Amino acid sequence: MNCARFNERIPEFLDGVLPTEEAAAMRRHSGLCPACSEALERDRALGCALREALQQESANLAMGPELATRMLAAAAGEAPGPLLSKTGGGAQRWKQWLRPCAIAAACLTGLVFCLDDRRPADVDQSREGVTPPAAGQIRAGGCSVDIPYHYVVHLAQVDNERSQDAMITGAGLIHLDQAEPGAAPQTTTKSRTTQ
Amino acid sequence: MDRQPEEAPVREVSLRALLCAHGDRLLRSAYLLCGNITDAEDLVQETLLQALRSAGRFRGDSAVYTWLHGILLNLSRRYWRSRKRLVFDERPVLAAATPAVAPGRGDRDYVLRQLAEAVLALSPEQREVVVLRFYENLKIADIADRTGVSTGTVKSRLHYALRILEGRLPRELNHFAATGTQEESTP
Lengths: 195, 187
Hints:
- The complex is a heterodimer of chains A (195) and B (187).
- In chain A, 50% of the residues lie in helices and 22% in strands.
- Chain A is an alpha+beta fold and 195 residues long.
- In chain A, α3 crosses α4 (34-58).
- Chain A is rod-shaped.
- Mean pLDDT of chain A is 66; it is low at 79-92, 119-142, 151-166 and 190-195.
- Chain B has 187 residues and is mainly α.
- Chain B has nine helices and no strands.
- Chain B has helices at residues 15-34, 37-53, 64-83, 91-97, 108-120, 124-134, 140-147, 151-168, 170-179.
């Protein structure tokens, strides 16, 4: 055991993974060489100080409820399969979506009825020759407006001892098209639902 | 010391269970790897998303936290590669500006704080090795497995990191060498 070999093996010696004979040779050399002994003790002390320093530096960090909720929401929107598909068979999966779909449909229906009697406050029926508008613009000869909607349905299922949360988010446009003033508006809904 | 017991690997992925069991530790490790809490939160979130995407490929041949931390390490390296710019870190400047007075026994927290700041100012590769060894308490061989480099490279990065830390805080570290610390690792 020489000094170069000793210094090269200090990390493994401190890990306690050296073979018995090599560890004994390290201890003998440390007893005979003050410089190597000091190097070993400095690395040992520095290692202990670093462990304590890093623990102290990060001790106050924790996954608070707000951050956890945000991560759950992001993950639920990202990958519904692994989260839900492992909880049961296909029939059970069907049943667990019936209620939230019914709630979502009821919300959409109610929203459509509420909007049915409305007219955009700033309808300009005198414009002519306007090219087909993007969502929210006014079209010549009548009025047309796209009303964005967004809904979020939170689900909670308790299955035996496990509880899992997921969200259905949906967004789309309710398109109201009134070709002639006074005519009944026609509504179409374009929706996109994500789970 | 923050040690987590080795749990049996699980195949069913419950995100809430992952967060409860490993969220805090992942967040702290991510903070020490990237140096700021906002990026650490993003790293942990992306780690969990990656874990969900690749849950089917997890063979259960390692602990769940080990698997998650491997994902976190890969993402932190991608994080550093994507930066590709010299980040001015004022912490070493502030540390150098502090009068170099030998601390007494009451200044232990100050020394530990300075030491942590010095770690966060290391290069990404050196910081990674230091965090894995002295926060995750991995052995050299395990660090090599986790990072995909040889044990020689791990020891080289560790050696230079420790010499840099000694160079930045020589008087404070002499204080530790003289008075000892709460924990001693005895082989």
